[in-house]
Amino acid sequence: MKIRVIGGGLAGPEAALTAARLGCQVDLYEMRALVDGKPRLTPAHQTTSFGELVCSNSLKSESPHTAPWLLKQEMRHAGSALLRIADETAVPAGHALAVDRIEFSQRISAAIAAQPAIRVIREEVERLDPPDSSGAMLTIVATGPLTAPALSTEIERITGAGRLAFYDSISPIVDAESIDMDRVYFAARWDKGTADYINCPMDRAEYDRFYDALLAAEPAESKDWEQLEYFEGCLPIEVLARRGRDTLRFGPMKPVGLRDPRTGKTPWAVVQLRKENLRADSYNLVGFQNHLKYGEQARVLRLIPGLENARFLRYGQIHRNTYICAPALLDQTLRLKTANWLMFAGQISGVEGYTESIATGMLAGIFAAAIARGGQPAPVPRATALGSLVHYITHADAKNFQPANITFDLLEPLEETLRKRVRDKKERHRIQCERALNAFDAWLASTIPAPRRN
Predict the structure, then answer these.
(1) What's the whole-model pTM score?
(2) Contacts from 124-133 at CB under 8 Å and sequence distance 24+?
């Protein structure tokens, strides 16, 4: 069976590489292309490369026995192609896995080009046609948050359920040479991992001046058709600020665990900067996604100590995020309940985050390969991180559905007797992770032919 994968972000390439590795022929469609020598892009992309990261460059925590770590461990056990590339292109980021975004994207593109079972087709897909008598074809839709209007309309037609939409924000990036290093310090929160983050400390007066300027800043213009429905886990900083003067100090500007080694004191507030690449020539402002005019961003952000003369390589901006109502539409093998030849993966399926998108792409590739072999894919066990994530998007309350990151709240809790005996939360998480990896490995052994797993 030939597999058709639509989307060249994160989930699509992972699905294509996984299915190809497991013996499938894959047509990978991507609408970004060179047309008459000029790039045709989306509002948020800057290149036509596969796997371009348009927001943060972090794939979250690598601290053992955390939920993001567990999800990545399961993906590593399954041989995720993109996670392997992420590991190869990692940049120092304390206890997080962050990547050199350019190298990451280039290596994904190279891996696809080197896979003879994948045919890349640079054109926009506007229709989702069922298999015909000329040969069965399973389609994986992995078009992500910027699904084109024509395909969105087609998805509405097929699902009959419409689509939900909210808006993600992109954090600004500054030139490292423009940072005043005399006013900042390197540290990781609670000294976990290596001190790879630049910390810009603020006293109370500096914070108040920044806060007042942020509230007064002029927002970017929204188009008439835009209805700004932000995802709670990725709110623009100015939206957070409107919730109260101290909201930022308990959110992206939280100072706890970031004692200034020069003074021995904890600042009133802190802005953290994270490396964008191995050369450390650019840094992004962690948690500073916003929807302000570019000139306003420059004025307000230069009130941050150390960024008085900052050169911005990229300003924050808003982009649309489209996703289906997965609880009403998908089964636990990511197939549409009313059309089992159609699968969804990545952010359009209702997960949030880079790692989660890659993970569902990998899972779609595994499921597609199982179907191609003439079998029926077995859902991932609920006890695992990936199984819990899929369980959430397929079983949540459809009326109030919002995309989700992986958290321990999604995993099956320990049995009550064990919870009473093990009081320490870290130990509970360790036990959950051990159980999850054992369950995942057992599922993997029964699902993927051993010679093709790595």
Answers:
(1) 0.79
(2) 124/31, 124/148, 124/150, 124/151, 125/6, 125/29, 125/31, 125/151, 126/150, 126/151, 126/154, 127/154, 128/154, 128/155, 128/158, 128/342, 130/339, 130/341, 130/342, 131/341
CATH architecture for the domain at 2-163+324-452: 3-Layer(bba) Sandwich (3.50)
Is residue 350 within 8 A of residue 401, CB to CB? The reply is yes
Closest CA to 442 of 387, 372, 390: 387
Q: How many residues appear in the chain?
A: 454
The burial of 418, by beta-carbon neighbours within 10 Å (0-12 exposed, 13-18 middle, 19 or more buried), is given as: exposed
- Domains of the chain: which residue ranges? 2-163+324-452, 169-320
What's the rounded Cα separation, in Å, for the pair 366 and 333? 10
How many whole angstroms separate alpha carbon 405 and alpha carbon 389?
Answer: 8
Give 215-224's long-range contacts (Cβ < 8 A, gap of 24+): 215/241, 215/242, 217/292, 217/293, 217/296, 217/297, 217/299, 217/300, 218/292, 218/293, 218/296, 219/291, 219/292, 219/293, 220/291, 220/292, 220/293, 220/294, 220/317, 220/318, 221/293, 222/291, 222/318
The Cα angle at residue 371 between residues 386 and 50, in degrees rounded to 5 = 60
Domain 169-320, CATH = 2.40.30.260
Per-residue pLDDT of the chain (454 residues), as tens digits, is 789 999 999 999 999 999 999 999 999 999 888 777 776 777 667 787 899 988 789 999 999 999 999 999 999 999 999 999 999 999 999 889 999 999 999 999 999 999 999 999 999 999 998 887 545 589 999 998 888 889 989 999 999 866 656 666 678 999 999 999 999 999 988 888 788 899 999 999 999 999 999 999 999 876 543 455 666 767 899 999 999 999 999 999 999 999 999 999 999 999 999 998 777 888 999 999 998 999 999 999 999 999 999 999 889 877 667 899 999 999 999 999 999 999 999 999 999 899 999 999 999 999 999 999 888 899 999 999 999 999 999 999 888 787 888 998 899 888 888 877 888 888 989 999 999 999 999 999 999 876 555 5
Q: Which residues of 293-321 are buried (b: 16+ CB within 10 A; e: fewer)?
A: eeebbbebbbbbbbbeebebbbbbbbbbb
